[in-house]
Structure formats: C-alpha cells, structure tokens
TrEMBL record:
Domain Acyl-CoA dehydrogenase/oxidase N-terminal: 27-96
Highest taxon, organism lineage: Bacteria
InterPro entries (alphabetical): Acyl-CoA_Oxase/DH_mid-dom, Acyl-CoA_Oxase/DH_mid-dom_sf, AcylCo_DH-like_C, AcylCo_DH/oxidase_C, AcylCoA_DH/ox_N, AcylCoA_DH/ox_N_sf, AcylCoA_DH/oxidase_NM_dom_sf
Record family assignment: Belongs to the acyl-CoA dehydrogenase family.
Cofactor annotation: FAD
Transmembrane segments: none
Database matches in Gene3D superfamilies: Acyl-CoA dehydrogenase/oxidase, N-terminal domain (1.10.540.10), Butyryl-CoA Dehydrogenase, subunit A, domain 2 (2.40.110.10), Butyryl-CoA Dehydrogenase, subunit A, domain 3 (1.20.140.10)
A Pfam family matched in the record: Acyl-CoA_dh_M
Entry keywords, A to Z: FAD, Flavoprotein, Oxidoreductase
Taxonomic source organism: Gordoniibacillus kamchatkensis
Record's protein name: Acyl-CoA dehydrogenase
Span of domain Acyl-CoA dehydrogenase/oxidase C-terminal: 250-363
Domain Acyl-CoA oxidase/dehydrogenase middle residue range list: 130-220
Length: 391
C-alpha cells in the first residue's frame, strides 16, 4: 500500500510521519523471519522505536508527548505491522494503553504525570497483565486468582499472569488483583523488579516475537499510591484504544496483498504469454482482496474518526468499535488466504513471508473483543432499539 496514494492519509504531516516510520518497518521486516523462527523478542526494534519517539506519541502534549489521535495511532500501527506484526502488536499495547488512560482520565493526576514524564524522558513502556491460567481473558469477567494483601504502606501482590505481552521490555506494568480488604478487583501499578519473574512460556503458532510470557508475582510490594483509583473526572471511552489490534492485523494483510500483487505482475510461467496477473482467475482473486481490504479499512478508519470527533458519544460506540475489529480482523484473514491462492505453492515456503503472515494474522481472533462478544453487543443494541420503538 503506497503511502502517497493511501486514501486514509489526510495531510502532509501524517504522510511524512508514516514515511519515516516505514523506513523502520522495512528494517523490521528484514529481522522478522529470524525472530519468528527462534521465538525471540525484538529488543533492537523496540530500541529503534524508542529513538523514533514512538513510545511518547500518545502522551499528552502538555507532558511533552505527541498527543496523537486514535485515527493517527491506527495509521501508524497499520504501517508498522506491514513490516513486522509481532513488533506492532507488542508496542500497540503500550501506545494504546497510554491513549486509554489519557482519554478516560483513569488515574489520579500525580501518578499519571509521573508515568508521562518517564515515558517522555526515558521511553519507558507499560502494559496491563490481566489474563490468568484459571480465569482466562479478563474480558470474560472472571475474578483474578492474583491477590493483593494489605501491608504497612501498601500491598503485597501474589499470582501468575499469562499472555503478558511486552514483558521482556517493561520496567513497570498494570496488574489486576483481588483485594480482600476492599472486596473487589483492583488495579495496581507494579515495578518489574524484586519478586517479579518472567517465565518464558511463549511458544505459539503465530505472533511468536511478542514476548507474551507468563509473569509471576511473589509477594511484590506495591506502595499505597500505586493502587490505581480512577480520577474524579474519569469517563468511559468505549474502548476505542483497542483499535490498535485490528490496525495491526490489517497491516499484516496489506503486506500479504502487496506481496501477491508483485508476484502476480512478475511471475510468467512458460505456459502463458504474459504474467499471471492477466489471467481471469487471478484477476478475480485480486478483486476479492480489494473488496476485503477496502471494506475493512473503511470500517476501521470511520470508527476511529468518529471516536475522535464525538467524545461525548464514546461510551455508546462499543458495538461500532467492536464491529470494526471483527470486520477488519476476519477480513485480514481472508486477504492473506486469497494472497496465498494467488501465489500458489510458493506461498508455503519459509523463504517467503506469506506463510508467516498466515500464522500471525490468525492471532487476531483471540485478541479482545472476541467475535462472540461483539455479536452479543450488536444483538443487545438491536433488541434495545426494538424494545424502545414499541414503547
């Protein structure tokens, strides 16, 4: 997907930033196969993103960050994933989470200000660790087995978290734990130091370089001030920040699309006169790819744009945001499949990236919100409207 002709780039400033990021994405693409093969975390990619200033892009301008919009974040995540999906998904949790706290005003100002200053000055990153072996995804509503016990000056956290993406690169994280003294699940800002152990369990079919290992907390002390209470002006942002997920998978799909188009235009078997791009069946497959990517991207960028423009309606946008994720993620899977049909048996070779795209893109089905949850939101909204109309 050419940046110059991308219909979702709205200004020269956006185009310039995407071009600079694309230079990184090209280098990341050169390393991606090796990290995928070994299942290693791309520390060098994270270092280059830190130098680029990526970590601070969603930090408010008042704290020295970029203050970018959700729409701009979607652009950047998509472009980055065209180089390396694992790197894009991993860093997306950081920039997305910062955007979420910023727009939802989720934390007390002193704690928020401290984090922002550290991100801007040192490029630190955060992510939430919430999934567990017993409870599964936190989006399903289970009570965490991780506990927080009150102690002098704070809390002691004990438990084990799974799918802890970015864990090899973090110096702090957000952990949810059940607190006996309050009788509910709370969130804590935890430093990755004594008592925190990363257990390298991540060995998966796709997205092998996200560093999504298990993290064990063994009586980790958390000062009282790092119990993350919502600020007095906290609002429900509808979860718009989660669009970093479908943006990533659409980026992978666009990379597969571009590979297939180049192949179709250059491959000339001696059984035909020209390239296979001239064959009717190949043209049909390309048309299906264009149908999928244009539909999905229109949905994705329209949802991001509306979220940016209508902050007062964000809480009511959950079905629309979930639908954008469902359409984009499932569309991405179909695009990669169609690209492989165009390329044929060569697409299965480890010497080319299509087979990695095929494995990576399927992981989107297991990132929140899951398809069944989105369908439930859509049904509830439809039935609610029907009931309202009958009154």
């Amino acid at each position: 997907m050419d940046i110059q002709n991308d219909p979702y780039v709205r200004s020269e400033s956006e185009r310039d930033r995407l071009r600079r990021l694309e230079a990184l994405a090209v280098r990341f693409a050169e390393r991606a196969a090796e990290h995928d093969r070994l299942g290693t975390f791309p520390h060098e990619n994270i270092a280059e993103l830190r130098d680029f200033g990526y970590m601070k892009l969603t930090v408010p301008k008042s704290y020295g960050g970029g203050g970018i919009s959700l729409y701009e974040m979607v652009q950047l995540q998509e472009r980055l994933a065209m180089g390396d999906g694992s790197t894009a998904l991993a860093v997306g949790w950081h920039v997305g989470k910062v955007l979420h706290v910023r727009e939802g005003r989720k934390w007390e100002e002193s704690v928020w200000a401290e984090l922002c200053r550290d991100i801007v000055a040192h490029g630190v990153m955060i992510n939430s660790f919430a999934s567990e072996p017993v409870t599964g995804s936190p989006s399903r509503g289970g009570r965490p087995a991780t506990t927080a016990a009150a102690t002098s000056g704070g809390w002691l956290l004990t438990g084990r978290k799974t799918y802890s993406t970015l864990s090899p690169a973090l110096d702090r994280c957000i952990v949810n734990a059940y607190c006996e003294s309050t009788g509910k699940t709370e969130e804590f800002l935890v430093m990755m130091k004594d008592g925190v152990t990363i257990v390298e369990t991540w060995n998966t079919l796709g997205m092998r370089a996200t560093g999504s290992h298990d993290v064990v907390f063994d009586g980790v002390f958390v000062p009282e001030r790092y119990l993350l209470r919502p600020g007095k002006d906290a609002v429900d942002d509808g979860g718009g920040w989660l669009l970093h997920i479908p943006a990533c998978y659409m980026g992978i799909a666009l990379a597969a699309r571009d590979f297939a188009l180049r192949f179709a235009c250059s491959y000339r078997p001696n059984s035909i006169k020209g390239p296979i791009a001239e064959l009717p069946n190949i043209r049909q497959l390309i048309g299906q790819i264009e149908l999928e990517q244009r539909t999905a991207r229109q949905m994705l960028y329209a949802a991001a744009d509306r979220w940016d423009r209508e902050p007062d309606r964000r809480a009511q946008m959950k079905p629309e945001l979930g639908l954008a994720k469902l359409i984009a993620t499932n569309g991405a899977i179909r695009i990669v499949d169609l690209a492989m049909r165009i390329v044929g048996g060569t697409s299965l070779s480890k010497d080319y990236p299509l087979e990695r795209y095929y494995r990576d893109v399927r992981a989107g089905l297991h990132n929140p919100p899951m398809d069944d949850s989105v369908m439930s939101l859509l049904v509830d909204e439809a039935l609610g409207q029907a009931t309202s109309n009958e009154k």
